[in-house]
Design brief:
The chain has about 325 residues and is an alpha+beta fold. Helices cover about 15% and strands about 20% of the residues. Among the domains are: about 60 residues, Structural Genomics Hypothetical 15.5 Kd Protein In mrcA-pckA Intergenic Region, Chain A (Roll); about 80 residues, Alpha-Beta Plaits, CATH 3.30.70. Strands 8, 9, 10, 11, 14, 15, 16 and 17 form an 8-stranded mixed β-sheet that branches.
Length: about 325
Amino acid sequence: MTRSTPAKPPKSGERLQKFLSRCGIASRRASEELIVQGRVEINGVLATQLGVRVDPFADEVRLDGERLKMPTKRLLIVLNKPVGFLCAASDPEGRPLVYHLVPKDQALRSIGRLDYNTEGVLLFTNDGDLAERLGHARYAVQRIYEARVRGIPNEETLAKLRQGVRLEDGPARAEQVDVVKQTDSNAWLRLTLTEGRNREVRRLLERVGHPVVRLRRVSFAGVTAGGLALGQWKTLEDSEIEQLRTRGHIGAFELPPDPRRKTAKAPGLSTGPGPNEVAPRRGAGRGQPVGRKVLAIDTLPPPKRPSRGKRPGGAGGKAPRSPGLPPPSSRGRKR
């Protein structure tokens, strides 16, 4: 039977969440959730306190009953993912997994994902903090894709993609997008994104009327799959891993300026309010039907004020009363 941890954890060793991160389980913050959920044991003792420390070489740490081992070296590899492989640890349908293509004894986990039908650069690491640093949207790590789409987007459509369009989970945009090749019926686009949302490229292009026929990621944080055939992988050098850890990118890079911030009168999202509409402030207009036009306050005519020296009601300055109402002095008196 599993016992609870002592009230006062030892002050020596390494913090448990850091140990879990170094084992490639999750980032330190996500590891804290695992500890609080009671899924981690130390030498048969249930760990529920975040201040617990462990000796990586002497203590036995288990997650959901499985013993964890500290990797001997921080590892990061790049896989040239082929189409037809799923980015998951298991699949009830029995489809091939990307983990079948990489070493199985290094506690690797993928940094982000690629769709089943998307190929290209996919990174794996046994460093949970590094996976968090590269995978989370708040760090805006650069991802470059090449997409073959139906039809040939015109400049207006490319501008919409740079400006941003509304998707089901909120506004999204490409930092940069260009046509690199085209035929009579389709085109190859190169897009730079920094969020990595689920199926983001496919949804963006479908939203502007150019569905994706083929999609590949050619770069992630400056890492490419150069020299790798589909299904092959290679390890990154320590110097490259250090650049990714400290800068979030290998080599120099510079994103184009955000078109939404060039001028104060930049247009809104392509599916936002029309030219005669202004989006209400947060909290304003609650309960209004969807699609109702909201006039801007600046477009309303200013209220008319009487000229100085003249008051309603003539020279006496008394405002006219409605017929049938008693004079003000008698209002409210009890009869």
